[in-house]
Design a protein that fits this description.
- There is one protein chain.
- By secondary structure, this protein is an all-alpha fold.
- It has one domain.
- The chain has five helices and no strands.
- Helix 1 packs across helix 2 and helix 3 runs antiparallel to helix 4.
- The mean pLDDT is 86.
Length: 87
């Protein structure tokens, strides 16, 4: 068991999100485009996309939408890029 169970849950959410990004062409292109943005612009785009997805489907917050906000953190984004590249 991890010393911080929240870390395991966050990692699992990030893993699921990266899989979804890899399975959806439109989301994959969006994710790759995030890498071209500055840190501030990437954060703004992540929060914009989060709000857009929630407005389209308020019930969609479980697998992708809720963990999507994690990408606003530079370290998490870098880890997601590495996981995405390994798909």
């Amino acid at each position: 068991m991890s010393e911080n169970p929240g870390t395991d849950e966050t990692f699992d959410a990030l893993t699921r999100m990266v899989r979804v990004l890899g399975d959806d062409t439109e989301l994959s292109e969006w994710f790759v485009g995030l890498g071209l943005l500055s840190s501030v612009d990437r954060r703004n785009e992540v929060f914009r996309m989060h709000e857009d997805l929630l407005s389209q489907d308020p019930a969609a917050s479980d697998d992708v939408v809720a963990p999507l906000k994690l990408l606003a953190d530079d370290r998490v984004f870098a880890a997601a890029q590495q996981a995405f590249a390994a798909l």
